[in-house]
Amino acid sequence: MNATVYIKQLAAQLGFDYCGIAAAVQLDDDARRLESWLNKGMHGNMQYMENHFDKRIDPRKLVDGAKSVITLLFNYYPGERQREDAPQVSKYAYGEDYHEVIRARLKTMLARMQEQFGQVQGRGFVDSAPVLERAWAQRSGLGWIGKNGNLIHKQAGSFFFIATLITDLELEYDGPVADFCGTCRRCLDACPTSAIVAPGVVDGSRCISYFTIELKEQLIPEQMQGKFDNWFFGCDTCQDVCPWNRFSKAHNEAAFTPLPEILNFSTSDWEEMTEETFKEVFRRSPLKRSKYAGIRRNLRFWKMNRGS
């Protein structure tokens, strides 16, 4: 079987919703954009974004002899929602930690490719290494980078995890698609902290997700008070208002089934939760990234934000 056809069929068998492939080359334009973004300090305290710049822009520095970058999209749009009066959690964190779920699929995918084609070299990544996932997704025809900085698929919106598999197999390559944001600016106008400073440019140091997940300080800056709407772990506002997400459909991945606690916890349930309970309930959840202390901090800020 044609290798490209085999890989795309394999991706579907493993539960990925879309698969695109691009030639492994240096990303010169993206390198310039990334360098400008870093120089303006838009990564805030995320110092790791400064590391391995050469690897971020050239996949051949991650996999020797790399010829192809396979990009895969995995839908996480939930069919259920939290109660509206409770502190809101970004939809990507409703179920199990996506890193573990998708990493296992990538390992299986590479193993199957090696069984089929012999000595194939490759590495799979899911938001855990210096890889410009959205740039590769765009180059492989899986969508365009919207004004909110997210990859948008014309038929399915933006509620996807992006994974990449870099390999030394030479494959048939897809081409980019057009940008269909047009004159729409709903995401720019709706961003609670005005973090979208220009079409496609997000000041990470102003994003609610940065403050509630990435920031490790004990306190969230006072100047952000009153600007978080109802969010206390991550933020989906720029995706929720995007017209293209009217095409989003609920996923059917068991591992991403929402935790009952996330759907049903009231504010008092979050307040009364002990560290022991947190570690037990959220041991396989993305919320563990903030740790118990971070969740408590976020909750205190959320209450101040709500004037309660």
From TrEMBL:
Domain of life: Bacteria
E.C. code: 1.17.99.6
UniProt-annotated catalytic positions: 127 (proton donor)
Swiss-Prot/TrEMBL cofactor(s): [4Fe-4S] cluster; cob(II)alamin
Enzymatic reactions: epoxyqueuosine(34) in tRNA + AH2 = queuosine(34) in tRNA + A + H2O
Chain residues that bind [4Fe-4S] cluster 2: 191, 207, 235, 238
Binding residue positions for [4Fe-4S] cluster 1: 181, 184, 187, 242
Cellular compartment(s): Cytoplasm
GO biological process terms held by the UniProt record: tRNA queuosine(34) biosynthetic process
4Fe-4S ferredoxin-type domain boundaries: 169-201
Cellular component, GO annotation: cytoplasm
Sample GO molecular function, one term: cobalamin binding
Ligand binding (tRNA): 216
Entry-linked SUPFAM superfamilies: alpha-helical ferredoxin
UniProt remark on cofactor binding: Binds 2 [4Fe-4S] clusters per monomer.
Sequence positions that bind cob(II)alamin: 56, 127, 148, 151, 162, 209, 235-236
Pathway the protein acts in: tRNA modification; tRNA-queuosine biosynthesis
Oxidoreductase is among the record's keywords: yes
Family: Belongs to the QueG family.
HAMAP family assigned: QueG
Protein function: Catalyzes the conversion of epoxyqueuosine (oQ) to queuosine (Q), which is a hypermodified base found in the wobble positions of tRNA(Asp), tRNA(Asn), tRNA(His) and tRNA(Tyr).
Name of protein: Epoxyqueuosine reductase
